[in-house]
Amino acid sequence: VHLVESGGGSVQPGGSLVLSCEYSGFLPSDYYMGWFRQYVGQEREDEAVAAMRNTGDPVYADSIGSRFTISRSEADNTLYLQMVKLKPEDTAMYYCAIGYGWVRHTLLSSNYKYWGQGTQVTVSS
Known about the structure:
By secondary structure, the protein is mainly beta. Helix content is 0%, strand content 49%. The strands form two sheets. Strands 2, 4, 5, 6, 9, 10 and 11 form a seven-stranded mixed β-sheet that branches. A four-stranded antiparallel β-sheet has the order 1-3-8-7, with no helix packed on it. The protein contains no helices and eleven strands.
């Protein structure tokens, strides 16, 4: 499974971005996808900002509130993360990931098996 993120960039506080993650390769029917972030100088966060199963059921980290929306285009094999009202503390490298098999919590990074290379998001005035 191969994942390639895009869509990162620099925006001002309050701005918006849409991240994309094109995925390819064989996926079992019980897969799930998520977006994680890593702050400069720190390890990648253990909890995703957003995740969803292949059947839907999006979930979000409590800290995100309603600012982010995860979605997917099956036709294009692309996972999206729409981000609005961005804050400086959202500045990070964002990674998409895929896992499979039954798990209780799709937000946990330890459940994921395939990772992209990341795309940088910078929120600054």
